[in-house]
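G., before I forget:
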Amino acid sequence: AQTIHQWPVAEIKAVGSPLSLGCTIKGKSSPNLYWYWQATGGTLQQLFYSITVGQVESVVQLNLSASRPKDDQFILSTEKLLLSHSGFYLCAWSLAGTGEVFFGKGTRLTVV
Amino acid sequence: AQSVTQPDARVTVSEGASLQLRCKYSSSVTPYLFWYVQYPRQGLQLLLKYYSGDPVVQGVNGFEAEFSKSNSSFHLRKASVHWSDSAVYFCAVSRGTGSKLSFGKGAKLTVSP
């Protein structure tokens, strides 16, 4: 069975500090991968997607970057956090040929 | 481009009562439609999906949804809610394989005893 693991579960970081969030998908080969951001009490906004290793497309500009160093790994990062980066970050995957997207449990980020 | 409107941001129903959460979509092509549920401090779980065929689709935990092309809607229903159904429900639409999944703003459901 496929599993999706996000780390860390939660982070409290200072404004201007760097950030790295990770996501690993096991049990599926060559999935499409996504990063979503959810403001507190808000809807979900797609940030990035990747259909293959080394290839990442940006959907919105939020002073964040993403990378896919391995087939099963997706990393979200920034060198300098802003207060507006606070929220809930969700990694997700889907298989080519379906529209169904599966989500991880998310990382709650608080920037202070 | 596609979009989703969920007109009811907060819904309160009594335990055992029926439920309908509304979803209207806008899409230039026949969309793929989804309902997700998000429990407090958790990720999203898929309740049900519609790609084609029978407009009424069954999901988990007694949920069902009905697709209406004429009304551009995909309303979620449940005959009898339980307190554990309290959560935020998101309707989502995509154009299919690998395309962007667009979410509505969500509907927070509170089931009262």
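The radius of gyration of chain B is 13 Å. The longest strand of chain B covers residues 87-94.

More on Monday.
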